[in-house]
Each structure stands twice: as structure tokens, then as C-alpha cells.
Amino acid sequence: MQTVVRSTLAPLTDFRSAEAGLFVAQLDDQLRLVKEATRGLTPDDLQWQPAAGMNTIGMLLAHLAVVEVWWTKFALGGEPAADVDDVLGIGGDDDGLPLPEGAPAYAPLNGKDLAFYDDLLDRGRGYLKSMAKDRVPEDLDREIPRERPDGSIRLLNVRWYYYHLLEHFAGH
Fold it and tell me: What pTM, to 2 d.p., does this model score?
């Protein structure tokens, strides 16, 4: 008898926008994979650096949560100077990224266990879901101006924001 393995993905059903619900379902699957890959890691594993100046696993996990909350506050919450500490309990720079060349692991994260990082990731995802679930489908086309360091303005739409969260999460 041949074994059949089915791989499916469906939008989260409690979202007004099925498209946003699909993006968040994809993000949830990526989070599931990250959690599966990190089970059993110790605080020493999470703060290990391949070489000075390189990110640790813990730094990258914290970074994923920080970026998810920052972009959600910016794109869905309309906060151009978004701060994440009210959601995560750590600030936007408390992931230690980017590390200076040759720097040791970011000391404030040393000794943190997997439960600490799971909590950050879960709070970040919970915040995203709370902000996204009641958005109407038309919100995906709304454009958001973002000033760039050179003073120019970049226009991005909410659909791009969801894509960027997914791209960023999967890339790390």
C-alpha cells in the first residue's frame, strides 16, 4: 500500500481578509518549524556564536519577535516611531542586532532559556493576530509612506508588509 502525505495550507478562518489570514497562516507554519528546530536547545546553545561578531540563535529569535511587532505597529497601527517594549517587554534594540565586527554575544540575552524566546515569539504573533484579524480586505491595498534615511519617501502597501514579515521570518 502506498503512503500518501498531504500538505495543505488554508487561511485562518477568524480573519475578515482571507488573504491576510493566509499570510498569517504561513507565518504560523514558519513559527512551528522554528519551534520544532529549536526544541532541546539549552541557554548555552542559544548564546553560542560561530565566531565573534556573528549572531547567536537567541539573538535571531529575539530579532524575529522585535521585527514582527515593529512592522505591525508601523503598518497596521500607524506608529512611525513604533516601540515594541509594551508588547514584548524588551526594546527594539534588545535583540543585539547588528553586532559590531568582532563583538561577543549580546550579553543581556546570555543565559536566557528557550521558554524566554518562545514567549517573545508568541507575544509577537499574538499582537500581529490581534491587529490583523479585523482588517477588511481593501486594507491590503492601503499605501503607507516611510521616510528613508536619505529623506526620500518609500510607499509600501499593507500586502507588502505581510509579505515582508513572511520573507524576513523565513530568511532568518
Answer: 0.95
Question: Which 8-state DSSP code applies to residue 77?
Answer: T
Name the nearest CA neighbour of 99 among 58, 150, 67, 38. Answer: 58
Backbone dihedral region for residue 96 (phi beyond 0: left; psi -120 to 50: alpha; all else: beta): left
Residue 107 parent element (H or E): none
Q: Look at the alpha carbons of 29, 126, 11, 162 in this order and tell me if their dihedral is positive or negative.
A: negative
**Residue among 155, 4, 131, 113 nearest 73 (CA):** 131
Alpha helices in the chain (DSSP H): 18-38, 43-47, 57-75, 85-88, 114-132, 158-171
pLDDT tens digits, one per residue of 90-131? 999 999 999 999 999 999 999 999 999 999 999 999 999 999
In whole angstroms, what is the distance from residue 144 CA to residue 80 CA?
Answer: 10
pLDDT of residue 81: 87
For residue range 67-86, list pLDDT tens digits in order: 999 999 999 999 988 999 99
Burial of 138 per CB tally in 10 Å (0-12, 13-18, 19+):
exposed
Q: How far apart are CA 170 and CA 164, in angstroms?
A: 10
The type of residue at 49 is Q
* pLDDT score at 145: 95
Amino acid code (one letter) for 14: D
